[in-house]
Amino acid sequence: MRLRVLLASFLLLPIAQAIAQDSDPFYLEKRNDLGLVAYCSAHGMLPDDGYRFFKAGVDEIFGPRTNTPEGDLHERKGRDGIAYLQGEEQSIQEMAAAYDVDIAEVCGQYKVHISLGKIAASRRAK
After folding, report:
1. Splitting the chain (126 residues) into consecutive groups of 10 residues, what average pLDDT does each group show?
2. Least C-beta-crowded within 10 Å: which of 9, 21, 74, 118?
3. Residues in contact with 93: Cβ distance below 8 Å, sequence separation at least 6, in sequence order
4. What is the pTM (predicted TM-score) of this model?
5. Which residues have a Cβ under 8 Å from the Cβ of 59 and sit 6 or more positions away?
């Protein structure tokens, strides 16, 4: 009986974690940020390896997380240039216009995070 309970707990824990992640606004924002980094890289405003290193930095701080359907959706929206912040969605063009800056400046906010991700990745490689 104990073995069954232990096995059930072991099997259900990842499912419970994925459900909790899907309702975590911070998780969804970070997944959206990953998509936005990919968008900015695809449009030449960030380095081609920006996504990889941004993800390495996020994983270093928060640990690797299992992808979830809701998280995947938010990342896809980011790849399409849709920003998600505090439950609100806005195109990257609208965001730039709202702050009276160009899109490259909005994308530039991720450069520090990418640099930190490079440091994290190099430490992990040692």
Report:
1. 41 41 78 97 97 92 85 96 92 96 96 93 82
2. 9
3. 81, 103
4. 0.79
5. 65, 120
